[in-house]
Each structure stands twice: as C-alpha cells, then as structure tokens.
Amino acid sequence: MIRAGALLALGSALAPLTGCDPFDRDGEPAPGPDPLAPLVDEALALAAAYREAAAAHPTLAERLTPIAEAHATHAAELARVARMTLPSATATGAPAEPTSDPDAALATLREREKTAREAATRACAEAPADRAALLASVTAARAAHLEALR
Amino acid sequence: MTTPTPTAGPAAALGAALTAEYAAIWAYGPIGVRLTGAARKAARDAEAAHRRRRDDLVLHLSTAGGAVPADRAGYALPFPVTDAANALRLAVEVEERTGAFWRAAVAATTGTDRERALAALVDCAVRATRWRRTAGITPLTVPFPGRPA
C-alpha cells in the first residue's frame, strides 16, 4: 500500500514536468483515481434514487427524504476526504422507470442499499486508519437505512 | 458514560469499547424495568447482545495477553430513568454512545479486529434505529452513526 501510494505520488508530481497532461489543470498535479471515488458516485446515485422514489410515492416521502439527505451528506464528506469536487448538479442518467406501487419501490431501494452497504464494508476493511472511521459510519448508516426501510 | 479518545492503539481502543459494553449492559437494567411487552423483550435482547460482545472482548483481550479493564459496580446515567419515554430515549443514547467507542476501535485496528469493531458499530446503529422507531423519534437514522456530535 505504502509503496503503491509513493509511486502514485511520484507519478503525479512528475506529470506536469512532462508537459503532456491532456486536461491542462493549471499546474495542479494530476491526481490518481481515489479509491473513494466509486463510493462518492454510489452515494450520489442513491440520493437521487431515494429522491425520485419519494417524489413518485408521497406516502413514503417522510421516510425516504432523510435517507436521501444522508446519502447526499455521505457523498459530500467522502468527496471532501478524497479532495474531489462534487458535480454541481446530480447527474441523473435515464429517468428511472416509475414503479407503480410503493412496495416495489421500497424493495428496489432495499436491494440497492444492501449492495451499497457491502461496498462500504469492503472499503472500510481496506482503508487507512484516517478514513476507516468515516467508512465505518457510512456502512453503519446504510445498515440503519435498511432497518428503517423494513 | 463518556466519549472515546481518538488516538488510542488497538488494545486501548478495544479496552475502551469493553468499558462501553459494561456500561451499556448496566444501563439496560434500569431501561428494562421501565418498559413492558415487546419493548421490554427488545431491551432484554439488546442487553444479551451487549453481553455477547463483552464476553467476546474479554476473551479476545485476555488471550492477547493485554490488560482487561474491570467492570464497575455502577455507571452514571446521562439522565434519570423514570418512565418508559426516557427509558427509550436512554436506550437510543446507549446505542449511540457505545457505537462511538466501536467506531474509534475501527480506526485503531486492522484485519479481523476491525471487522469485529465494524460489526459491533453496525449492530449499535441498527438497534438505535429500532429504539427510535419504538420511541416515535424521527428521523429514524443519523447520517454518521458513532461520530461524535
């Protein structure tokens, strides 16, 4: 881990010297992909999914809106730790198929939340100490969301 | 009941988690007597879960040859438990505070010790969610379980 990190750091320090940074970051070192990046994307996608389900099923809004906000808060905190910039507007892909009944919407969210909890568990296991506590809280929050969706 | 110190090594962090488990087990005594029916059963189940964590930790710490903090005769509660409503509020708080110690233990450990600490934090967060539901507290979840406020 340490060796790989050192090589990455060296690589990014050298990038501007070679003068072939295709994105011209104004002298900023080109960052390697942060292992938190997929978790940021996942948290943003989850926040959007909960918001869409809350809009489609107003009876669920009271339960789903705080969870949507938690995922958005996670995305912001993970991005801050990874020194990433959050996209200003949530990139929603193709609008989700409107699910006809609230039970089906909840079942879909439960599946996505389960997958996300497992991803956060794996990320926590592999994280350095200074990130492990944040990832532990994200994992625990996702497990708590599953309980709240029961 | 206190809050965890952030800079502990693995053994100290797990020892601190053990003292939190002692306090949680103790607190479920006064909580349980104020509850009835399903809530009382949930309190018993929660207490049993904390006892399992305690036993697991005592075994783990003593096998590793480190210091095993001793239990105390009693623990200070953050507020008096006089009825079912504040018993439920205390149950939420017990799980939140115990979770904070396990979260600190996650950062201080690696490998299977970290897995154990994470599993304990997850359990605390899920039980806190159930207690909030029983108490009628919304929202049911917090964004960062175990993180000091």
UniProtKB/TrEMBL annotation, chain B:
Entry-linked InterPro entries: DUF4439 (IPR029447), Ferritin-like (IPR012347), Ferritin-like_SF (IPR009078)
Pfam families: DUF4439
Gene3D superfamilies: 1.20.1260.10
Organism: Micromonospora thermarum
Source superkingdom: Bacteria
DUF4439 domain ranges (all copies): 13-148
Name used for this protein in its record: Ferritin-like domain-containing protein
Transmembrane stretches, start-end: none
